[in-house]
Amino acid sequence: DVKVTQSSRYLVKRTGEKVFLECVQDMDHENMFWYRQDPGLGLRLIYFSYDVKMKEKGDIPEGYSVSREKKERFSLILESASTNQTSMYLCASSLQVGSYGYTFGSGTRLTVV
Amino acid sequence: DAKTTQPPSMDCAEGRAANLPCNHSTISGNEYVYWYRQIHSQGPQYIIHGLKNNETNEMASLIITEDRKSSTLILPHATLRDTAVYYCIAENAGNNRKLIWGLGTSLAVNP
Question: What are the pLDDT digits (tens) for B44-82?
Fold first, then answer.
């Protein structure tokens, strides 16, 4: 069964910490995405990548960075965590050509205290 | 990218068909209609997509009007496990970069 795996289901971090959220897909997909989801705001795109070492800003990139050193892995980095970054973080992947839908991970619920 | 409009919530009796509407009146000719659902505390799950013709798979059917300004997702025999938020999205199939997500329809399937 094809999968997008996020390293942690729940995470609690302190304000000011550097936080790494990891995402791995086993479908050989070119595109990978990081979203955050908050009540009443829906899914908002943070960053995406359409190739190794390539990245593009989404709608809300401030306070985040990403890394894609290998095709299967896409990392989201919170440089200095703040309480307003408490959220559900969702990773997704998709094929480059044609469209067969996005596959999402189960999400990481991050709480910054 | 076309914006979609969905009712915020719907109810359906278990075993009955659930018909979820979506309005996408500004959709362009090369934009597909996608449907996803999100069960509580999980990531969204792809259901189905279509361009012009009606589509059916093991999960659902998608009916797109002839003018493509609206569509309906049909779950033919809803079960309690179909309780979820359903998202309708219009997107150019050649642009796999990102989708624009609304707030979806929260479907409650009642016993």
Answer: 999 999 999 899 999 999 999 999 999 999 999 999 999
Q: Do B91 and A105 touch (CB under 8 A)?
A: no
Neighboring chain B residues of A31 at a CB cutoff of 8 Å = 96-97
The candidate with the shortest Cα–Cα distance to B88, out of B38, B14, B17, B29, is: B38
CB contact under 8 A, B96 and A107: no
Nearest residue to B10 via CA among B97, B72, B95: B72
Q: State how beta strands A10-13 and B31-38 pair.
A: unpaired
pLDDT surpassing 60 at residue B21: yes
For residue A86, which of A13, A5, A35, A16 has the smallest C-alpha distance?
Answer: A13
